[in-house]
Amino acid sequence: MSVLRRPKITEKTQLLTSKGKYTFEVGRDANKIEIAAAVEKMYGVTVDKVNTITQIGKKKSRMTKSRLSSGKTSTFKKAIVTLKDGDLIDFYAEL
User: Fold this and answer.
1) Cα dist. 85→26, 49, 67, 70, 82 in Å?
2) pTM, rounded to two decimals
3) Which of 2, 27, 32, 95 is the most exposed place for a label (fewest CB within 10 A)?
4) Number of other residues whose CB lies within 10 A of the CB of residue 11
5) What is the per-residue pLDDT across 20-46, written as a single tens digit (0 to 9) for each?
6) Is 38:81 a contact under the CB 8 Å cutoff?
């Protein structure tokens, strides 16, 4: 199983890119050392530090014609990776 799942691209994470911080969704069992090594290998940059957050799944419900349907979103882990000065990752280069 891969350590890095996908980059999280939102308005908030795009503001962090100007500070050299990039956000990725990672495997729930990945640690900071594995995340740093995977980012360095995949993008060819130097990682300064890694912060991780486990996002707990939220309860969701909606009304259908017959009853209330409820469930839960998935729990996932995300990592905020800070790069050394001068390094950058271009997610849109391959589009």
Assistant:
1) 23, 12, 55, 46, 9
2) 0.84
3) 95
4) 6
5) 999 999 999 999 999 999 999 999 999
6) no
75 torsion bin: left (phi>0), alpha (psi -120 to 50), beta (else):
beta
Q: Tell me the C-alpha distance between 12 and 16, whole Å.
A: 7
Q: What is the 3-state secondary structure (H, E, C) of the chain?
A: CCCEEEECCCHHHHHHHCCCEEEEEECCCCCHHHHHHHHHHHHCCCEEEEEEEEECCCEEEEECCCCEEEEECCCEEEEEEEECCCCCCCCCCCC
